[in-house]
Amino acid sequence: MATSHVLSAIEPNSTSLGPLNTTMQNRSPDIDRNVLVSLDDRELWMRFQNLTNEMIVTKNGRRMFPVVKVTASGLDREAMYTVLLEFKQIDNHRWKYVNGEWVAGGKAEQPPTNPVYVHPESPNFGAHWMKEPISFAKVKLTNKTNGNGQLLKFQIMLNSLHKYEPRVHLLRVGLDHSVTYPFPETQFIAVTAYQNEEVTSLKIKYNPFAKAFLDAKV
Rounded CA gap, 122 and 138, in Å? Predict the structure, then answer.
């Protein structure tokens, strides 16, 4: 993701730096050398990945499960950072569920413009981001805008039946670059109703708010 695209998702005065899990982009060795961002609940994410994870998108927006949550270390405690979550559409085709498995379908739709969520506690000090896991629990996935073509607070617009990979960006205030940490374990297909019964069962088993998923049509 180009830095300019990341920065366009935040206020003009809220620029910053960042790092994350395994793969990194635009890393500045003098500033980011000791920064690490790791995915929490990785084993749970892997359970879903083994089934091809699905996330519900609705008109009003549906919260994710599992929730993207990361732990950061090595930040400058006194520097200010903005933390963002990007949803990257990762291939060039739609998906369809046929005979119990996901297969590539037709040509992908154009990705929604700038599907980036700015953490509501941004910008904040490095010490703040390191004191506890950074949770994106408030994110709501939608497939529609309101009548004015706008999104409500916390909503992220996605194309149904397309595959996405959540990516975390840490932007250090005052700098014009970012470091990106993609988490392949968190990839999912956006759906309006769960297709795989095993995914539904796993969500109900591990989600503390499982009743929210019982209305999902399989």
Answer: 14
The CATH code for residues 3-205 is: 2.60.40.820
Q: Identify the DSSP state of 184.
A: G
Residue pair 74/35 in contact (Cβ under 8 Å)? The answer is yes
Spatial CB neighbours of 80, under 8 Å, sequence gap ≥ 6? 16, 123, 124, 125, 126, 172, 173, 174
Write down the domain spans for the chain. 3-205
Interatomic CA distance for residues 29 and 86, integer angstroms: 23
Distance (Å, whole) CA 6 – CA 171: 9
pLDDT single digits (tens) 23-66: 344 444 455 678 999 999 999 999 999 999 999 999 999 999 99
Kindly state the tokens that stand for 27.
């890393």
- pLDDT tens-digit map of 56-84: 999 999 999 999 999 999 999 999 999 99
- Please report where in the chains the tokens 């995915």 appear, as a residue: 39
Q: Which residues contact 166 (CB under 8 A, 6 or more apart)?
A: 68, 85, 86, 87, 88, 136, 182, 183, 186
Backbone region of residue 114 per phi and psi (left: phi > 0; alpha: psi in -120 to 50; beta: other values): left
